[in-house]
Amino acid sequence: MFSRIDHVGIACRDLDATAEFYRRTYGFEVAHEEVNEQQGVREAMLRVNGTDDGHATCLQLLEPTRPDSPVAKFLDSRGEGVHHIAFGTGDVAAAAAAVGHTGVRVLDAEPRQGTSGSRIVFLHPKDCGGVLTELVEAAVSAVPGGAGAHQSVKNV
Ligand code: MC0
């Protein structure tokens, strides 16, 4: 059903300072930046490695753009840190349906827009051992070979 860990989402209060930490400490560069108004986040993708399915595994830094957004609520209650894990799939609707049939609550009736034109669905953390879980289908236009959905393009 899944072919990669697409990304690990990390909630932060200051995206630029957090990106600089990852650059300085581990050498990870920002491959893509974007504001997702629907989700209420400014985000940066830091590519870690290419994956066998032609895409990539990334760290996703998330800074809230409004106080009522999920990431702002998370920061208020838990502080900075790992916010969610995302699994990559070729068919997010089918994957969500299959997981939903196991009894896990699927939070999005229809896939929403994610990073770089991807389609995403969230699963309830209370049904996933306390881990907010995202399913990701990369955009059709994603370039094979690892740059994938997380090319060196800044859309801010
Ligand atoms: C909340 N909870 C979490 C959590 N967020 N547990 C683990 N990880 C998280 N990230 C827990 C709370 O601690 C609480 O547990 C319970 O879930 C209810 O939380 P709440 O604060 O009362 O908030 P709700 O119920 O209004 O909403 C929680 C829910 C929501 C997960 C349903 O945040 C949601 O729909 N998230 C999906 C969308 C999202 O997170 N978007 C931001 C990333 P207790 O024990 O206190 O009851 S967007 C993104 O990542 C996109 C751009 C992309 O990848 O492309």
UniProtKB/TrEMBL annotation:
PANTHER family attached to this UniProt entry: METHYLMALONYL-COA EPIMERASE, METHYLMALONYL-COA EPIMERASE, MITOCHONDRIAL
Family matches, as InterPro entries: Glyas_Bleomycin-R_OHBP_Dase (IPR029068), MeMalonyl-CoA_epimerase (IPR017515), MMCE/EMCE_epimerase (IPR051785), VOC_core (IPR037523)
Family that this chain belongs to: Belongs to the methylmalonyl-CoA epimerase family.
Gene3D superfamilies linked: 2,3-Dihydroxybiphenyl 1,2-Dioxygenase, domain 1
Gene Ontology BP terms: L-methylmalonyl-CoA metabolic process
VOC domain residues: 4-138
GO molecular function: metal ion binding; methylmalonyl-CoA epimerase activity
Entry keywords, A to Z: Metal-binding
Species for this entry: Murinocardiopsis flavida
Database matches in Pfam families: Glyoxalase_4
Stated name of the protein: Methylmalonyl-CoA epimerase
